[in-house]
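Record 1 of the preview.
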Amino acid sequence: MATADSGELVVTPEQVVAREARIRPRLGLAALAAAIFTVVSNLVQNLALADGPKVNEIDALRDAAGEPLGRPGLASDAVLYLHDHAAGLILAIVLQALVYVAIGVVLLALLRMTLDRGGRAPRPTRFLVVLGPALAAIGGLVRIGGLLANASDFASSSDQGTKAAHDVTTNGSVLVAGTLAGQLGILALAAAVVLVALAAMRVGLLTRFVGVLGAIVGVLQILGPLSTGSFIVTAFWLAMVGMLFLGRWPSGMPPAWEAGAARPWPTQQEIREQREQARAARGGGRGGGGATAAPAPAPTTPAAGPAAPSPATSARKKRKRRA
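->
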């Protein structure tokens, strides 16, 4: 590796490509695994909660009025259901934590590749990439641990009224700490996904579609349960990033991957100018394929004067004059 006059290490594009070639297969597999785990974790969680008891508005009004519900508390059945299906919930959260870790690894590598190509990202981007996935993963695990611990205490308690059931999902230092850490981690992760995806798109590592979709995925992390099917969009984006790392993009790899340097996508103005130049070139080709000789003008004949009289006509006129 060469060294600049200032003493800083200079990394050439060839060195960038060679270094990335060693790690890209592992990163591609990590992104694909994260896509699969995203779908599986959501399916496991939905199956675990599919038959859970629901609290309807009528029961809530009856409980508020002090009428008997036929069970100890308003949400007592729901809490007991969580306790009985703890294994499925733990599996779903563990898979989701692995997804967060894999996303952090992928984002960190993509950020470095972007910076190696002269790309720019806001200063706290690297901090968000490291902090976000770590907090989201740890927070999710701590929260589910606190929630299931409260549910276990509730199941063995003699007080299973409405207030006790409500305390299961809101009280406890472990539960509160896990919830707070998880929310902060999700916010940081969302910002990291948006910043890295857009920065990588600007240097040409991600196509415009994948870059914009990455920004959408970041927003969906914040919306969470409010965005139906958001995990499918996240899994789809991770799968596309994995295909890029593996060099298996269907329409051909973006040039920036093999060049080891930035290859920005043309702007809309540049695309319009290229189209106009191509259109003008096609028009010039049709009219400038060699000078063609102008058609020769049709020969002109002099204007014909009055027709000369025939000899017979002249003789008749002379006889009339003599007469």
